[in-house]
Amino acid sequence: MTTHISVFLQGFFNPSTGEMNDSLVQKRLLPKYDNVDTMCYGWQNPIQKKWHTINVTDTLAVPTWFDGKITDWIQIELRDTTTHPITRYFQTGIVTSKGVVLDKKCKAMLWPTVPFGYYFIIVHHRSSLSIMTPHVVYMQNYDNNWDFTDSLSKAFGEKAMIEVNVGKWAMWAGDITSSDQRGPENYSDHTDYNKIYNLRGIRPLGYWMEDLTGDGKIDDADLVLQGANGIRGSYVPYIDDRHYNLKLNLNSQ
């Protein structure tokens, strides 16, 4: 099964170009898959693993054949609520400057062990509020498309996304303090603001969760963005560890 998902990140989006920046790649700050998947998305132990702020020394090498621009790592979840306990499938991939979600090899995201059926599509990002489809989507074979960017109605919840350009919608930036982005916080508030305030201008260039704009720096631009967004939370329902089956490392080879 293949998914074709599109999503924008508020802080990375440039209204002048209609695309997101690729500064992390240009500055050689985007970590390799093994680093980001362990440190940010916790494949090795997703229940106990915490999100970490990391300074990258081993960065992603973009394939020479790839003619797009890579913005950041992102994670897709397929949630089957018809089972008991609920089944959740996760896969980490990249999002391009145009908002296209691909796998770690910059190819279409494959789900070889996921059975056809009805799923909620959920998007997680290290410093954004998670979003999900407003209803289940029937997934089969190759034509599984969902574009979160072209309408607010594509995500569940009132004001689940922010309009970053005319008719273009993105995930809200600002949630940097969740201990587990699949966990109960998924909330942007004064705690996030204070953390950016205390760290701005102190850390060197790196891959920092507090860097909401994706330029490798923690500065006033990140602080202003977080403050402007105010207090808000994700509409993605939290599921306690005991109430779901977790499927890991799909298409990881």
Can you give a write-up of this model?
A hairpin with a 2-residue loop joins strand 12 and strand 13 (168-171). The radius of gyration is 17 Å and the shape is globular. It has helices spanning 23-26, 33-39, 190-199, 220-229; strands at residues 2-6, 13-14, 19-20, 70-80, 86-96, 101-102, 109-110, 117-124, 131-132, 137-139, 144-147, 161-165, 168-171, 187-188, 232-233, 244-247. With 253 residues, it is an alpha+beta fold.
Task: Please state the overall shape, judged from the principal axes of the Cα atoms.
Answer: globular
Rg to the nearest angstrom?
17 Å
Largest pleated sheet: 7 strands, mixed
Q: Which class of secondary structure composition applies to the elements?
A: alpha+beta
Element-level helix/strand string? EEEHHEEEEEEEEEEEHHEE
Number of E-type strands: 16
Give the N-to-C terminal Cα separation.
Answer: 16 Å
Mean pLDDT: 83
Number of helices: 4
Q: Percent of residues in helical segments?
A: 10-25%
Percentage of residues in strands: 25-35%
Oligomerization state of this entry? single chain
**Which consecutive residue ranges, at least 5 long each, have pLDDT under 50?**
42-55, 179-184, 247-253
Layout of SSEs?
Elements: E1 2-6, E2 13-14, E3 19-20, H1 23-26, H2 33-39, E4 70-80, E5 86-96, E6 101-102, E7 109-110, E8 117-124, E9 131-132, E10 137-139, E11 144-147, E12 161-165, E13 168-171, E14 187-188, H3 190-199, H4 220-229, E15 232-233, E16 244-247
Parallel strand pairs: 1-11, 5-16
Antiparallel strand pairs: 1-7, 2-3, 4-5, 4-8, 5-6, 8-9, 8-10, 12-13, 14-15
Helix pairs in contact: 3-4
